[in-house]
Amino acid sequence: MASQSTLRFGAQTDEMTSLLRIVNMVRTGEATTRPEIGRVTGLGRGVVTQRVDHAIDLGYLEDGDFSPSSGGRAPRSLRFRGDRGIIIVCALGALHIHVGIAALTGDILDQSHRAWDISRGPAETLEAATAMIDEVLARSPETPVWGIAVGVPGPVDFATGRPVAPPIMPGWNGFDVRRWFEQRYEAPVWVDNDVNLLAFGEQARRRDESPDLIYCKVGSGIGAGLISQRRIHRGANGAAGDIGHVRVRDADALCRCGKVGCLEAVAGGWALVRDAELAIAEGATGMLAQSGPDNPVTPERISRAAEDGDALAITLIQRSARDVGESIAALVNMFNPGVIVIGGAVSAAGELFLAEVRQRVYELSLPLATRDLSIVQSVDDVREPLRGGAEMVREQLFDVTFPRWFADGRPTVAAIRANG
């Protein structure tokens, strides 16, 4: 027979589990009134009332307006207290820093952006980023920081928050990015590849379209974020989706990673700039050739010139799209997504780029894998990395670590890291 202490522990565990579930149901909109919670969970009216009152006392929920009546007294809706904390997002790119703060609901409240070369190293870069964050925080009411997302343009060991041999980030290998932010803001930090942040944002935007999604970024570099059953797939060591360093058939260009023939070295933005400058030096003419110190060739300029009909730019964009499409086709056969979202500076050429990608994917993928597949362009919004970072932190706080800190009323570094 079970002991009294075992029974009490079991009852406390059941109560905690149902509390967590109720808070998350209200937070996600699955159930927003007490009667709805009872119907979804199967809990009795008295138990639901007790759990909801407890969640209100802890500060997670509050009563809202009355909902429409279906007969009898109208039930009062419940709201998640998304104003109790904020999320900081720091999205580092190869040539920029983008920071912002978001409510616990994921809504972006404020942001700041500046040009920056990440090859200047971790100390200088993170000092610049935290100075930008402090400026944004100073413009907002004092609200506790509940979590921080940091995106970097390179491979990341998600468990430790350290970049691993990032090709375009000299001096960053093994740097403890997570500790840098945790010490400064005394809040839990998660560090991820920048493409994964974009995948999180697209998954939230397209939640009702497909649970399986690939976000492919074709900018200065190339990478992919993989969403499987609405969860990010990072792989065993965080390297999943790194298609930029897949070998391209018959290619011999030297990549920034030190290998030869990588997709990024023939189809990435920096490779297109290299090839455009070479063609211009050899006598190519047209809009793109009208470059100089004040108007350098960039991936963005190549995309715009292609849209405007420049022959050299069109050739570069179409060649990039064909190579990218071939690598994506391999992902389609292995991963079978419902949606592929293409983003980044090179893909900004729009349908010119997308049409070539679609053609290669449908040529090289199995019919069953492409039967319900849609290939679309990402939303052209500079806030997308911020939204994606906020979604990543929300997942970590409320879906992964919630039981560790729920009873404390807010997350702490100690509670989050105590069990992983």
Automatic annotation (TrEMBL):
Q: Does the keyword tRNA-binding apply?
A: no
User: Which superkingdom does the taxonomy of this entry point to?
Assistant: Bacteria
What GO molecular functions are on record for this protein? kinase activity
Coiled-coil stretches are none
Q: What UniProt keywords are attached to this protein's entry? A: Kinase, Transferase
Keyword presence, Transferase:
yes
What InterPro entries has UniProt attached to this entry? ATPase_NBD, ROK, ROK_cs, WH-like_DNA-bd_sf, WH_DNA-bd_sf
Give one Pfam family.
ROK
Member of which family?
Belongs to the ROK (NagC/XylR) family.
What is this protein's name?
Answer: Sugar kinase
Q: What is the lineage of its organism?
A: Bacteria, Bacillati, Actinomycetota, Actinomycetes, Micrococcales
